[in-house]
Amino acid sequence: MQIFTGKTAVVTGGNRGIGLAIARELGTRGCRVVICGRDANALESAVTELKNDGCAISAKGCDISNPAQVDAFFQAVRDHFGTLDFLINNAGAAHALAHVEQFAPEEFCRVVDVNLIGTFLCCRSAIPLLRAGGVMVNNLSVAALQTFVGMSAYNASKAGALALTNVLREELREKGIRVLALVPGAVDTEIWQQFWPEAPREKMVSAADVARAVVLALTMPANTSIDEIRLGPASGVL
Ligand SMILES: NC(=O)c1ccc[n+]([C@@H]2O[C@H](COP(=O)([O-])OP(=O)(O)OC[C@H]3O[C@@H](n4cnc5c(N)ncnc54)[C@H](OP(=O)(O)O)[C@@H]3O)[C@@H](O)[C@H]2O)c1
User: Fold this and answer.
1) Which of 31, 51, 170, 235 is most buried as measured by Cβ atoms within 10 A of its Cβ?
2) Per the confidence metrics, is the pTM higher than 0.85?
3) Which domains does the chain have, with CATH numbers?
4) Distance from the CA of 223 to the center of ligand 1, in angstroms?
5) What is the mean pLDDT of each run of 10 residues along the chain (238 residues)?
6) Residue 119 and residue 226: Cα distance in Å, rounded?
7) Pocket lining: 151 vs ligand 1, CB cutoff 6 Å
8) Atom 46 in ligand 1: which residue has the minimum CA distance?
9) Ligand 1 pocket, residue 13 CB under 6 Å
């Protein structure tokens, strides 16, 4: 795990859930980690928690759906660190269940703006900073591949983000940057409050286990063909 020492990572949505777990896995292995999110209190708590775990961690508020904020965030990363080794596009949003004919257009746009446009904006700003040998991990979902009734905006945005990820993999190959799709099934985080609060948490994978899988994938040699990290509950369904 020496490969993380002295390296720099950005984890979007690193103030809680899967992002926080990935930031911890990277930080405790010697990687400098920069996290972002919108909730300033959650960012502050995450920084305190990770510093207590011995991580070199910094944070800056950023709404990834806002182009000016994304530009400012990556400009700050450039000013402090110069380059990046790992970009973990993790920030994402879900929504209350609704069939398409009842779906508010502004809610559909909000979810697409975060999960698809926001991921695009972060990639666009981060790519000039990514060093050869670097890795980008895009946190998608089984919803990129599998249909969930009532989840049209989430399904569509994650399928779009998968297409974006596949294009990025080809575009960045010649620069020596690997692009991985993270495709989790149900993970026990707060996101479930948005569409199924009473979902059976005990059947879900933990955020810590997802983070361990990500770190393992990052340690694979550069000549390894690994495009996707896929894991979920052993039962397959909840
Ligand atoms: N939990 C699951 O079952 C599951 C399964 C598959 C994939 N995923 C994906 O995993 C990722 C992380 O989700 P999670 O489960 O850890 O959920 P979570 O606990 O709700 O965390 C979501 C994270 O995204 C950030 N975020 C949301 N909107 C943002 C925005 N506009 N700008 C910047 N940051 C934003 C949140 O921070 P702020 O609110 O402070 O902005 C938070 O850090 C998401 O992309 C999700 O789709 C989750």
Assistant:
1) 31
2) yes
3) 2-222 (3.40.50.720)
4) 30
5) 90 98 98 98 98 98 98 98 98 98 98 98 98 97 97 98 98 96 98 97 97 97 90 86
6) 21
7) no
8) 92
9) yes
